[in-house]
Structure formats: structure tokens, C-alpha cells
């Protein structure tokens, strides 16, 4: 049997180290939990309050109808993309566009998200949705041509 005797100062130091470790772990857990909670609604000046939850093509139709948009059922593209961990000037500009529609991608830095590109019904434009854990977290409209400008949904 091994017995270790610590002096008063050593016990205090060990207790403070354990407390510091507990605080670090607690802050990490709270930070992760906060990042994972996605509100079911977002708000923009143009559209007002709108729901963001999507799970199938019917709910995507419902989401788009809040912006007076409709899209073909079959996606043009469905893939995964990563939101950069650090935004460069191009992504900062893109996030400003997102904020006009009530989104903010800075909450999702480093996350892998689903990208869904749909053809707008009756138009030659594309609607791109960024979806994370069943919620639209970003979206834009474009012509689909490389280098074309993006527009906010609202």
C-alpha cells in the first residue's frame, strides 16, 4: 500500500487545480451546447419572423413560401460544405448578405452543413439553402453562373 501525505499548501494547490479543470470542462460543455441549439425561427427586416426547420421537400416548400418563392422538387445539387473556421473578406461579405435574410453563419464556423441547390419555378435562378441539423442557417439566390452576384432571399 502506498500512502502519500500532502502538506496544507499542496492540498490547496491540488484543490485549486481540480477546480480550474472543472471550470474549463464546464465552459467547454456550455459552449458546445449553446452552439448546438438552433432556434426554430429567424427574423429579417423584409420577411419578419420566419421558421427555419426543414426535414423534407414539403417543409422546404413551406420554408420558401415564406419568401414568396417556389422551387422544383428535384434538387440540382445536394452536397456537404464546410463553413470556414475563420472568415476571410469574401466570406465576411457573404455573411453580411446572410444577415440581410436573418441568418448569421458566424455561429456555425467550422461546421459541416448540407447544401441544397434548387431551381426556382418560373425563373432562371437558383436557390441555395445551407442546412444544419434540420434548420436552414443560410440561403441565397443566384443565376447559377460562376461569378454571378448573390441576392438575399428577402
Strand order in the largest sheet? 3-4-5-6
| Overall tally of structural domains | 2
> Main beta sheet, described?
4 strands, antiparallel
How many helix segments?
Answer: 3
Compute the average pLDDT. 85
DSSP helix fraction: 25-40%
Order of helices and strands: HEEHEHEEE
* Radius of gyration, whole Å: 23 Å
Strand content: 15-25%
Number of strands: 6
Distance between the termini: 72 Å
Shape descriptor reads elongated
Describe this structure in words.
This protein has 2 domains: 8-37; 39-142, no CATH class. The chain is an alpha+beta fold. The strands form 2 sheets. A 4-stranded antiparallel sheet has the order 3-4-5-6, with no helix packed on it. A hairpin with a 2-residue loop joins strand 5 and strand 6. It has helices spanning 8-36, 57-65, 89-100, and strands spanning 41-44, 48-51, 77-82, 112-119, 126-132, 135-142.
Q: Can you give keywords for this protein?
A:
6 strands, 4-stranded antiparallel β-sheet, two-stranded antiparallel ribbon, 24% strand, single chain, alpha+beta, 2 domains, 154 residues
Amino acid at each position: 500500500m502506498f500512502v502519500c501525505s500532502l502538506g496544507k499548501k499542496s492540498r490547496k494547490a491540488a484543490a485549486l487545480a481540480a477546480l480550474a479543470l472543472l471550470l474549463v470542462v464546464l465552459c467547454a460543455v456550455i459552449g458546445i451546447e449553446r452552439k448546438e441549439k438552433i432556434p426554430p425561427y429567424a427574423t429579417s427586416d423584409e420577411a419578419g419572423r420566419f421558421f427555419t426547420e426543414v426535414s423534407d421537400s414539403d417543409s422546404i416548400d413551406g420554408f420558401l413560401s415564406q419568401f414568396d418563392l417556389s422551387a422544383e422538387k428535384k434538387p440540382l445539387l445536394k452536397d456537404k460544405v464546410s463553413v470556414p473556421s475563420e472568415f476571410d473578406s469574401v466570406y465576411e461579405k457573404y455573411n453580411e448578405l446572410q444577415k440581410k435574410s436573418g441568418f448569421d453563419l458566424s455561429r456555425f464556423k467550422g461546421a459541416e452543413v448540407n447544401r441544397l441547390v434548387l431551381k426556382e419555378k418560373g425563373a432562371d435562378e437558383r436557390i441555395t439553402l445551407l442546412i444544419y441539423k434540420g434548420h436552414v442557417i443560410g440561403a441565397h439566390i443566384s443565376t447559377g453562373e460562376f461569378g454571378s452576384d448573390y441576392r438575399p432571399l428577402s
